[in-house]
Amino acid sequence: MHISRNTFSATILIIGLAGCAGRAPQPVAIVQPTDPLMDCAAISIEAQANNVKLQALGAEEGDKVAQNVAMGAAGLFIWPLWFAMDFQGSASKEVAAINSRNQYLAVMAQQRHCGAPAQPVAPVPPQPYRGS
């Protein structure tokens, strides 16, 4: 079997492009080295920042789905486009990791009694009036 130079070059090009189809996931670690140092304010700030990231990743997931649908449909006519589809699911893996991190932060906040009302202070009994 003889493969022409053009066919070989096209195959190498397609394989190279397939490696560029989407980014690698970068999930956040559930437990961070600085966790023991975090106070209630730091826990709250990180959870809020994570929620902002979740919104951005949700938009990214929607864009990737639309892109994959377009590539899949166009691939019916130009089959090399199928290699440009993103099958890594980076955004969904990162969403799962951030949700796990937020659950861990919620447990930390509960253990540190964040958001709990302050412990009641024993009332001072009223002093009798000593008039002059």
What descriptors fit this protein?
132 residues, mainly alpha, 55% helix
Walk me through the structure.
The structure is a single chain. This protein is mostly helical. Helices cover 55% and strands 0% of the residues. The protein is built from 3 helices and no strands.
In brief:
55% of the residues lie in helices and 0% in strands.
Q: What composes the largest sheet? A: none
Tell the overall outline.
rod-shaped
The helix/strand series, from N terminus to C terminus, equals HHH
Radius of gyration: 28 Å
Number of DSSP strands? 0
Q: How large a portion of the residues is in β-strands, by DSSP E?
A: under 5%
Tell me the helix content: 40-55%
Rounded average pLDDT = 79
What is the topological layout?
Blueprint: H1 5-18, H2 40-75, H3 90-111
Helix pairs in contact: 2-3
